[in-house]
Amino acid sequence: MIKKQYLLFLLWGILSLTAYAQKPNPAAVKAVTAILYEQQAAWNAGDISSFMEGYWQSDCLVFMGSQGPTFGYENVKQRYEKNYATKALMGRLQFTVKDVQQHSPTIIQMLGKFELERSGGNASGYFSLLWRKTDEGWKIISDHTSASNQN
Predict the structure, then answer these.
(1) 24-147 maps to which CATH number?
(2) pTM for the whole thing?
(3) 7, 13, 27, 111: which is deepest, by most CB within 10 A?
(4) Contacts of 122 (CB under 8 A, 6+ apart)
């Protein structure tokens, strides 16, 4: 009986690793990358509403930053509007994608770097985005962004 349980556990582990290591669909990677750079352009135009179009409009959306988690589309949008109330505070944003992994046909993880140049002081750091393919297209469902002292 123990052998059977061990084999089932081993099989489950192998299947899990296979799912995790799925080869990314080039069209899906291109789609999420295009959305990210549309967000960058919207940010640089001072347009938070257009920037937010890349996010899932759901109470289940989560943004994790230095202040802890913020849940829900409207709360995330209000956080951006509060912290970046003017175009000068928004500055000029540049994203660099470092890695993209597709975990399933509808889930993509993207790792990257951000650099924000602004008159009040520059910022840079890293992000981890979890994208989900929805009826409205690819949307960010989880955003973990951390500022870094190291570039």
Answers:
(1) 3.10.450.50
(2) 0.83
(3) 111
(4) 91, 115, 116
